């Protein structure tokens, strides 16, 4: 019987590439989307054409009831969830000092990146324990595993670093049940490249002379974490950044002449 992965926020962006990669690897996939209904339905159709089971679910990931309903829909269709990939995580694109955050902005960072993973985890872990297998994957940022500070991204960095610690804690608590928990930290992948596969950019080159990084670079790591034979890869924070210094570059922009 095929295994089922549940992926948050996959209508567009990195989650889109994760869905495609897992479907190609033989997984059935349930995924949530917010405003990107058109893209989500097109993605679901692509997966169905590959002969895999798929369910696209409209979900407000800030709302606990909506999150639990999305999981219930996935369980009704597939009967079981073997892997949870928490790709969702709101980000403030404006460079904003922490002192300028208000309560609503702070709570949005915490709930969207951290609290809703707790809701998801608690809802599926008992079934994973019962079946003796489960996989959790969270998404961080360069340096999340060492709680690296990020100038003007402090709230996001705090939430993701907390998520890294939570992921590692789950790995230690759940390992004897056949459950693993790992985090992947993407590099600087922008715009439509987040949804692209490696084959889409095989002939392209950056100013460094390298193939552009794309969503599948991150999705490959996720698919590896989810394999049955990846049991000993547990409590890991893996950076898929091409060794580019994302945080340093963002924190210290070039000054105008």
Annotate the secondary structure layout.
Elements (H helix, E strand, L loop, with lengths): L3 E4 L5 H12 L3 E6 L3 H13 L4 E5 L5 H15 L4 E4 L16 H29 L2 E6 L14 H21 L4 E8 L28 H12 L10 E4 L5 H6 L6
Parallel strand pairs: 1-2, 1-4, 2-3, 4-5, 5-6, 6-7
Helix pairs in contact: 1-2, 1-6, 3-4, 4-5
Walkthrough of the structure:
- 42% of the residues lie in helices and 14% in strands.
- By secondary structure, it is α/β, with parallel strands linked by helices.
- The relative contact order is 0.15.
- The mean pLDDT is 91.
Radius of gyration: 18 Å
Task: Please give the order of strands in the largest beta sheet.
Answer: 3-2-1-4-5-6-7
Helix content estimate: 40-55%
Q: Count of DSSP helices? A: 7
Order of helices and strands: EHEHEHEHEHEHEH
Coarse structural class: alpha/beta
Number of DSSP strand runs? 7
Largest sheet: 7 strands, parallel
Oligomer: single chain
Mean pLDDT across the residues is: 91
The residue ranges in which pLDDT falls below 50 over 5 or more consecutive positions are none
Please tell me what the overall shape is: globular
Strand content: 5-15%
Keywords:
single chain; 257 residues; alpha/beta; seven-stranded parallel beta sheet; 7 helices; 42% helix; globular
Q: TL;DR of this structure?
A:
The chain has 257 residues and is α/β, with parallel strands linked by helices.
């Amino acid at each position: 019987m095929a295994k089922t992965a549940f992926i948050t926020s996959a209508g567009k962006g990195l989650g889109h590439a994760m869905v495609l990669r897992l479907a190609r690897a033989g997984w059935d996939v349930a995924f949530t989307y917010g405003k990107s209904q058109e893209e989500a339905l097109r993605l679901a159709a692509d997966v169905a054409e590959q002969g895999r089971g798929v369910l696209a679910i409209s979900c407000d990931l800030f709302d606990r009831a909506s999150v639990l309903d999305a999981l219930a829909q996935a369980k009704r269709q597939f009967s079981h969830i073997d892997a949870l990939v928490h790709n969702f995580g709101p980000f403030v694109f404006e460079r904003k000092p922490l002192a300028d955050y208000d309560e609503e902005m702070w709570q949005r960072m915490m709930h969207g990146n951290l609290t809703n993973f707790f809701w998801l985890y608690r809802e599926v872990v008992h079934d994973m324990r019962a079946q003796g297998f489960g996989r959790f994957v969270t998404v961080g940022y360069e340096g999340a595993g060492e709680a690296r500070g990020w100038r003007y991204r402090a709230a996001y960095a705090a939430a993701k670093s907390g998520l890294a610690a939570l992921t590692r804690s789950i790995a230690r608590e759940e390992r004897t049940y056949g459950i693993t928990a790992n985090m992947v930290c993407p590099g600087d992948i922008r715009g439509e490249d987040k949804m692209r596969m490696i084959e889409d950019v095989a002939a392209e080159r950056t100013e460094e002379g390298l193939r552009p990084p794309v969503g599948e670079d991150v999705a490959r790591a996720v698919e590896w974490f989810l394999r049955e034979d990846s049991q000993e890869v547990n409590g890991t924070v893996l950076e898929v950044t091409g060794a580019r210094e994302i945080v340093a570059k963002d924190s210290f922009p070039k000054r105008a002449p």
